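Please, structure for the following, as tokens.
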Amino acid sequence: MWMMDKGCGATIEGVWKTNFDEPWVEKILRKIDKCGLELTQWSKKKFGSVHKELETKRTQLARAERYARSGGDTSWLRTLEAEIDSLMDKEAKMWRQRSRVAWLKDGDKNTRFFHTKATQRR
């Protein structure tokens, strides 16, 4: 999901284009650290508040529905529905990625999580 966004690539390119006056090994390590920090900040700005934004949009949607029922314009309603759909897709992708991380971390261990997943598949 993050790699599909244009800001991710731009953030990475911006960090790797900066020039540090250090030996090449230290320069690479410093760029990797800086890249991680920049991507964390970018992610918080771009995706960090998906849940809160979704709640806000749903509140606005309720208001727009009341307005449309009273004979008002429905364009705002359609716009909000499209935005909510987009936010719900983002949220679903985020949860899917989190579940994959859990699987990679815990999936091959002989844990209750692993056995539950294997039983579900069977």
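The two ends are 29 Å apart (CA to CA). The helical segments are 6-17, 24-46, 50-69, 75-106, 112-121.
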